[in-house]
Every structure is written in structure tokens, then in C-alpha cells.
């Protein structure tokens, strides 16, 4: 009888160990990402800007969301429309419970032309999971510098039209606001979706 009880205990311990290994297997820290892993290389998400209602907004307002931060401008002829369309498609392919935990943040670095109303109309075209924000040029410069990027303005033409140079990368922050990934322009919609899905499923403390 004692041997039998010991066997049951061993079986129980084995079951606990298997469960522990299963949990370790679900740990996203060992995952191979499609995007570039920037964990520990960038500071957490932090900003003071204005939203499409002209109201002050900061990172804590979207706390608990996976946030995809992209710098651009509404007059952008190519990179911005392509990027926002791909991000919106990727988020749209997520299950409802995951999609609700994701926000695409479009940061306009062209405050002279991009009013809150114009940004609202622009982002609405690409889907309802996109939040448009902007700010003063010093605020935007500070934010860009925080994430080791920059932007610049070309000389305006006779009609005051000008291009804005900016990064094509997308910074991804997890639900705790920690910088996790940099999405490159060459990633497919499916690859972006996989990375976002993995972060949306995380339960981190």
C-alpha cells in the first residue's frame, strides 16, 4: 500500500512538471518574432500630445492595449497609406477579443497642415482601430528622439506643398507600454498579424 501511494504521488508530481513545462512553452519571451525584437533597447511608451478632438492625451489613456506607433503625415503619397492599410488589414484579421486589445497610433509629424479634424478623417478611412495624434513640433521632435528616429521638412513649392521625410518603421509596445518590436516595411500582413496576436495574448505583470 505505501508503494502504491508513493506511485500516485510520483504521478502527481509528473503531472505538475508537465503542466509547468507547458506554461514555459507558452512564454512569449522565447518566441521567434517576425519583427525586430527591441525589448530592453527602447524606453517605454510615453508622450504628451493631442488627439483628433484637440484634447490632451498621453500613454496612460490607452493603457492595457498593444500599441503600434507609426510616424507620418496625411499628405504622404506612398509610405503612410501603404503602412496604415497593411496594419489595418493585419489587425482586422485578429479574433474579436484580440482586436479589441490593439490600437494603431498614427503620429502626424506635420502639425502645420494636419489639424485634428484632418487627421480624424484620414485615420477613419483606414479603420476604427486607428488613433490619430499630433502636437507641437518640439513635442514631436522629443518623441521621435526618444525612439531614435527623426523627421524633416523639404522646401515648400510655390503652392506651399512640401514633403516630410520620416521613418517607415512601426514601433510596437505591449499592454504594459514596454517597447517590444520594430516592424519593417517588408513584413507581410500575415507576419504582422502573427506578432500582434502573440502580444495581444500575453498576460504579463
Can you offer a commentary on this structure?
Cu cation binds at residues 76, 80, 166. The chain is an alpha+beta fold. The chain folds into 2 domains: 1-30; 33-201, Glutaredoxin. Helix content is 37%, strand content 20%. Strands 1-10-9-4-5-6 form a 6-stranded mixed sheet. A hairpin with a 5-residue loop joins β2 (48-50) and β3.
Layout of secondary structure:
Layout: H1 2-25, E1 36-37, E2 48-50, E3 56-58, E4 66-72, H2 79-92, H3 96-99, E5 102-108, H4 116-126, E6 130-133, H5 137-146, E7 151-153, E8 164-166, E9 170-173, E10 179-183, H6 189-201
Helix pairs in contact: 2-6
Protein name: Electron transporter SenC
Keywords: Copper, Disulfide bond, Metal-binding, Signal
Disulfide bonds: 76-80
How many individual domains? 2
Q: Biggest sheet: strands side by side, in what order?
A: 1-10-9-4-5-6
Helical run tally: 6
Mean pLDDT: 88
Domain Thioredoxin: 38-201
Keywords: Copper, Disulfide bond, Metal-binding, Signal
Family: Belongs to the SCO1/2 family.
Binding site for Cu cation: 76, 80, 166
